[in-house]
Amino acid sequence: MVMRHGFGALSRIGRKHPFVFGVAVSAFKTSASDFFAQTFVEQREQVDLRHNAIFFTWGLLYLGGVQYFVYVHLFARRW
Questions:
Q1: Cα dihedral sign, 58-64-66-71
Q2: What is the pLDDT of residues 10-24, one digit of tens each?
Q3: What pLDDT is stored for residue 8 in this prediction?
Q4: Distance (Å, rounded) from C-alpha 9 to C-alpha 38?
Q5: Does residue 48 sit in helix, strand or coil?
């Protein structure tokens, strides 16, 4: 029951603020992927936070921002 309310709240936020939601999800996803790569693939003792912050920023600006613009605005005009 709690999960359903949590996902419902996320869905409402996504519908109300699609750009902010997409940017946040992309930043979190990219940062989490780097965290798992450093922890499990590279088997580091400590996570390199500077490296992770760079991936977070990449996810925020490029994957979230630029790709949102490309897919939502440019592709919408094309088709």
A1: positive
A2: 889 889 998 999 999
A3: 83
A4: 31
A5: coil
